[in-house]
Amino acid sequence: MKSLKKLFVSSIILIVIGFLGLVTISILGNNSLVLTNYGYGRGYMFGYKGFCNTGRGNALLQEGKNLSFETVKDLSQIYIEEYSNNLKITEIMEFSENYYVEVVEEDTGTGAMELLIDKSTGSIFPEYGPNMMWNQKYGMHKRMRTNNFGTDMSIDEKKAIDIANEYLAKSGANEYTENEAERFYGYYTIHTIDNNGNIFGMLSVNGFTGDVWYHNWHGLFIEMQEYD
């Protein structure tokens, strides 16, 4: 009988906890932060209900769905100011599914983070994949790292490009890599090109393991702008 009572009490507690969790998510979702695969938190995703719903961000989004490169750059600039004044935007690429933004550190020239902007809402958030999982300084696991943020990777740029080309050859894709790679903390990101030398997409190579992660969430490449 005591065991049954304990089981009954435990069940009630779990139900209450679950209910409170749903209520909390509902409240947070309606007020400020947007839920992503990585949970709630500043630095993962900001949309109309969060980052872009205040001050300059909200004003910029009044343009609607057709975001210009200038608007994307301004939105990204507001976003990176939340991190540091040592960051700058060096590249924006428009794809059919999203805008991709490359951010580097001004003092070191090392890639800091990669961002995505939703073309239909203007929501800006860290790119999935390597940027979150391999980025030792600005990624998901940054708090678990020491101050040695993967600046001395065992795989150099040339080797990373060779690994990427081997991967593309084995995959049977009619793609090749450009002859340079952007160095981030723990990995490299490289543009891929077609037979005519036109940009097609991109992939990343882990600077320690040589693992390759193709960015298959962009869609078709449309246009790119680079910044000093």
Summarize the helices and strands and which ones pair or pack.
Blueprint: H1 2-31, H2 55-60, H3 69-81, E1 87-95, E2 98-105, E3 111-118, E4 124-126, H4 130-133, H5 157-171, E5 176-177, E6 182-183, E7 187-193, E8 199-206, E9 212-214, E10 221-226
Antiparallel strand pairs: 1-2, 1-10, 2-3, 3-4, 5-7, 6-7, 7-8, 8-9
Structure overview:
The protein has helices at about 1-30, 55-60, 70-80, 130-135, 155-170; strands spanning about 85-95, 100-105, 110-120, 125, 175, 180-185, 185-195, 200-205, 210-215, 220-225. About 30% of the residues lie in helices and about 25% in strands. Residues about 15-55 have low confidence and may be disordered. It is α+β, with helices and mostly antiparallel strands. The termini are far apart. The longest helix has 30 residues, at about 1-30. The chain has a five-stranded antiparallel β-sheet, covered by helices on one side. Strands 5, 6, 7, 8 and 9 form a five-stranded antiparallel β-sheet that branches. It has two domains: about 35-125, no CATH class; about 130-220, no CATH class.
